[in-house]
Amino acid sequence: MMKSAKNSLWILTGLLVTIVGCKKSELPIKADTDTFQRIDAYIGSLVDSAGIPGISIAITNGQEVAYSKSFGVANLHTGEKLTNSHFFHIASVSKTFTATAVMQLVEKGKIDINEPLINYLPYFKMKDPRYRNITIKQMLNHTSGIPDVTDYEWEKVESDAGALERYTRSLADSILLSDPGSTYYYSNIAFDVLGDLVAKVSGMSFEKYEKDYILGPLGMNESSFYFPEMKRNLQTSPHTGNPQVLSDVYPYNRKHAPSSTLTSNIVELSHWVIANMYEGKYKNTQIISPSTFRTMTIPTVTVDPGQELSMGLCWFIYPYRGYKNYVHEGGDIGYRSILSLLPERKLGIVILSNSDNIDVQQAYFHIVDILLATQS
């Protein structure tokens, strides 16, 4: 349920009262009605002036949702008003769920991320013989050398149970971009294959594993990697171009589910934010151990030294305004998304848009600036 700015203020005030004794850098953000009005005005301007069809945003502070609101429409053609319950394709933010599934299987002793992928998927082959040396860790931190997807074939939807394995087998003529472990190259292909790994090691489909072991336990009961099962009455439509028009295709293809196709909303993604903020725990449910989460957020490779940008296991890590950020963005035709944690402030932000014409990172930075300006 969307909370008003006044109610959000009471939540944040209560949090501050209960954590006396924490270091200043660990305190939640202080905010007042003016703070949320400034966020309202900024997001509203993107819809009203910049021509963005719809934006949903949630801000978590500590273990509470401090602010959540939706602006604009779910579909420009129908004019249906966007609500917090509407679902979006979240694109590459999906990878954080795939990586967590892999690490759950590590905890169960079923995967060793330092072992070669072929130990688990013997039918994974590439034309380049170096593929035999690719480890699961290298796939998680984008140093495997596996190239990126060039065509998602959204207009040629595959939704049958064999799609992921077929995709893995289709890579037999591919060439690596570099020696495994030597260089950072972002690869959606690597994460799609990781989804096939999850399926084969767990003995169930990738989508069912995610539903049973991550989405369900976190109360994300309406979210799904399998688009055909989604309820259409609360589904947003993708918009592209300038001026914005409805996209002719929806970005779904089951062979790219692990890298791209989770469908969710800000209500349920706030559960994911809080679970990661508290090292794998949401309410009374622990989906991964604190030590595993810390392993996932330790820098493993430098992506951009000039911006102090590094990569953990799936999570991007960089400083902003003196605070560490764990971030993942997403973008496919008709959609943009970002999910970020500022653990030192117990602050999480999710922004979803049914437009590919929004600079979602710029929007995120603007909102963080507003929130950090409230600190004493």
List the helices and strands and how they pair.
Elements: H1 5-18, H2 33-48, E1 54-61, E2 64-75, E3 80-81, E4 88-89, H3 94-107, H4 136-140, H5 163-169, H6 188-202, H7 206-215, E5 239-240, E6 245-246, H8 257-260, E7 263-264, H9 266-277, E8 281-282, E9 285-286, H10 290-296, E10 301-304, E11 309-311, E12 316-320, E13 323-332, E14 335-342, E15 347-353, H11 360-372
Antiparallel strand pairs: 1-2, 1-15, 2-3, 4-7, 5-6, 8-9, 10-11, 11-12, 12-13, 13-14, 14-15
Helix pairs in contact: 1-2, 2-11, 3-6, 3-7, 5-6
The helical percent reads 25-40%
Number of domains: 2
Taking the alpha carbons of the first and last residues, their distance comes to: 29 Å
Second-tier CATH architecture of the largest domain = 3-Layer(aba) Sandwich
Largest sheet: 9 strands, antiparallel
The CATH H-level homologous superfamily of the largest domain:
DD-peptidase/beta-lactamase superfamily
Looking at the structure, the CATH topology of the largest domain is: Beta-lactamase
Structural class: alpha+beta
Uncertain residue ranges: 1-27
Gyration radius (Cα, Å) is 20 Å
Average the pLDDT over all residues and give the rounded result.
Answer: 92
